[in-house]
Write a sequence for this structure.
């Protein structure tokens, strides 16, 4: 999140002084830098009702969640009231995915969480059901779902693969953002004609895809959703001071594997 300081001669979407938010491009310097060079096609206008910290927390996870739901497993208007299992509901991506799935797509959302504070967080984001990931198949079925229409994994595709295979409906869709350390046996999905989709939010900018401007449109649409109260920022930890100590603390929180929502360091 930041203010446009300068624009190139071919820029048409923004001008100097505009407040914007974006996730950036892993081929360029990251967000620990004071100034960034960023392609306008992956930038959106900052939501007016969010503080700088609240806005900064959102683009990476929002784009990831939006793309996996609408661009990868291709949820659309006809899918309203269908069921979605979100593995990792209290994390950064899971938190905003719950909101988008429930409040934008109109799905019945089942999210995983195991600690009282993470269960409560998922409910606040809009989850209809919260289940314990430690006995996933039984927990989902006890919630009233023998199988589900969609599954998205934000934790570990290897750890939950057998459960996903068992829980997905015939002709359903599974998406994942995790990095498997073992092979994934896609053959197990063949009998049900289930499709599997990877999502990496940086793909469009890495490969300069023809539809790269899609991220500009997503962020702009989301800005309106923030402003009208449909979705809210998922910031949970707010550290003040761009210091080495705060950077270390933020990374330690992330590496703990128990982070709820998003962490932001503000000047």
């Amino acid at each position: 999140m930041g203010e446009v300081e300068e624009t190139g001669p071919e820029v048409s979407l923004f001008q100097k002084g505009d407040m914007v938010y974006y996730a950036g491009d892993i081929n360029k310097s990251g967000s620990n830098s004071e100034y960034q060079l960023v392609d306008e096609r992956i930038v959106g206008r900052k939501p007016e009702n969010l503080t700088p910290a609240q806005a900064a927390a959102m683009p990476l996870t929002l784009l990831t969640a939006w793309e996996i739901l609408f661009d990868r497993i291709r949820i659309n208007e006809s899918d309203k009231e269908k069921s979605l299992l979100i593995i990792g509901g209290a994390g950064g991506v899971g938190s905003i995915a719950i909101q988008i799935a429930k409040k934008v797509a109109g799905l019945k959302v089942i999210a995983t969480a195991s600690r009282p504070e993470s269960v409560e967080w998922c409910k606040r984001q809009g989850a209809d059901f919260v289940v314990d990931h430690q006995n996933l198949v039984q927990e989902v079925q006890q919630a009233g779902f023998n199988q589900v229409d969609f599954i998205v994994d934000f934790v570990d595709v290897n750890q939950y693969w057998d459960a996903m295979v068992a829980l997905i409906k015939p002709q359903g869709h599974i998406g994942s953002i995790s990095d498997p350390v073992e092979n994934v046996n896609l053959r197990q999905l063949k009998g049900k004609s289930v499709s599997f989709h990877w999502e990496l939010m940086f793909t469009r900018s890495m490969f300069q895809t023809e539809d790269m401007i899609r991220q500009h449109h997503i962020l702009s649409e989301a800005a309106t959703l923030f402003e009208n109260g449909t979705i809210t920022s998922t910031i949970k930890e707010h550290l003040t001071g761009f210091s080495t100590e705060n950077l270390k603390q933020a990374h330690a929180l992330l590496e703990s594997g128990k982070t709820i929502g998003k962490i932001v360091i503000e000047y």
